[in-house]
Amino acid sequence: MAVNSKKIAVYVLVVFVLYVIITDPAKAADYVQIGFQGISDAAGAVGDFMTWAANGGE
Q: Organism's domain of life (predicted)?
């Protein structure tokens, strides 16, 4: 039952993404840009933390 629920959830997500892309491409592009900006910020924060930790936490 869990496998079927997972397949259904993935299918619904794909349909939603396609719907957004088809109906409003500019908004879809904004969503992608926001997502990549968030990933970039998270990677920068991890890098800052690792630099801080490598320097002895000072």
A: Bacteria
